[in-house]
Amino acid sequence: MKRISELVLYKDHHLMVFNKPGGLPTQDDKSGDPSMHRMAMAYAHRDLYLVHRLDRRVSGVLALAKTKSAATHLSKQWKEQKVKKIYFGIVPTREIPVSGRLIHFLTYDNKKNVTYTHDEPIEGAEEAQLSYKVIQQLDNFMVLQIDLISGRKHQIRAQLAAIDLPIRGDIKYGSKRTNPDGAIDLHAYQLQFQHPVKLEQQQIIAPLPGGALWDHLTLDLIQSI
C-alpha cells in the first residue's frame, strides 16, 4: 500500500494511520506535552478515536478511527487478538536461540508505571505472549523482529528485560543509558487488520526511525518481511 507521507501512512473516510515518533505520547497525559492523538485531530480537522496505543517512547504504526462504528470494529479486532503486529527492537547481543516464543504473566504498578513479569500465573496477572527472531547482528547489539501476540502495557519491554535483553535506551527496564531524543529503540513496523467497512485485509508499514543504529539495518531483511 502506497503511503501518503512519512507521518501519514494511510487515510480514507473511515480511518487514518500515522507513524508516531518515539518520545511523543499517544494521548494527552499529566505531562501536558503535545500528543499524537491531538496532533492527528488538528491535521484531520475532526475528532478521531483511539483504538490502540503505543508507549510514549515507542515509534511506529498508530491507527485512529474517524467514526464510532469504525472504532468499535477495530477495537474488537485488537481485543480478540486478530491484529498482526510486527515490531523491530534493538537489544544487547546475548547468546540466545535465533528464534523463540516468550510467555509470561504480567502485573502493572500504576504508581510506578512499571510492568512486572512472572513465570507462573498469579492473582491479577495477565498472560502475555510474543515471538521473536534475531534478524541482524550489529557491533554490540542485535536486531529482533517481534511478533506481538497479545498486547499488554509495556509488554515487549518487560518480557525482553526478563531475559536480560532490555531495549536500547530503555533505562526503566534495564538499559544502561538513555537515547538523546528520549525514545527507545523499539519500533512498531507493521499492522495487519481487517478494514472496518471494506472488510479487506490492510497491511500498513511505518518507515524506520532515522539515526543511531537504525541506519545500519539491512533493508533487504526488513523489506522481505
Describe the structure in your own words:
This protein has 225 residues and is α+β, with helices and mostly antiparallel strands. The protein has one domain: 2-Layer Sandwich (Pseudouridine synthase), CATH 3.30.2350.10. The protein has helices spanning 36-44, 68-79, 155-162, 219-223; strands at 8-11, 15-20, 49-50, 59-65, 84-92, 99-109, 114-118, 126-137, 141-148, 186-194, 201-205. Strands 1, 2, 3, 4, 5, 6, 7, 8, 9, 10 and 11 form an 11-stranded mixed β-sheet that branches. It is globular, with a radius of gyration of 17 Å. The mean pLDDT is 93.
Main features:
Pseudouridine synthase, 11 strands, eleven-stranded mixed beta sheet, single chain, 225 residues
Write the layout of secondary structure elements.
Elements: E1 8-11, E2 15-20, H1 36-44, E3 49-50, E4 59-65, H2 68-79, E5 84-92, E6 99-109, E7 114-118, E8 126-137, E9 141-148, H3 155-162, E10 186-194, E11 201-205, H4 219-223
Parallel strand pairs: 4-10
Antiparallel strand pairs: 1-2, 2-4, 3-4, 5-9, 5-10, 6-7, 6-8, 8-9, 10-11
CATH architecture type: 2-Layer Sandwich
Secondary-structure content class:
alpha+beta
In the CATH hierarchy, the third-tier topology is known as: Pseudouridine synthase
Helical run tally: 4
| Helicity range | 10-25%
Q: What is the count of β-strands?
A: 11
What's the rounded overall pLDDT mean? 93
Question: In the CATH hierarchy, what is the superfamily?
Answer: Pseudouridine synthase
Q: What number of structural domains do the residues give?
A: 1
Query: What's the N-to-C terminus distance?
Result: 14 Å
Strand content: 25-35%
Categorize the overall geometry: globular
Under CATH at level 1, the class stands as: Alpha Beta
Q: N-to-C SSE series?
A: EEHEEHEEEEEHEEH
Low-confidence segments, given as residue ranges, are: none
> Radius of gyration, rounded?
17 Å
Profile the largest sheet.
Answer: 11 strands, mixed
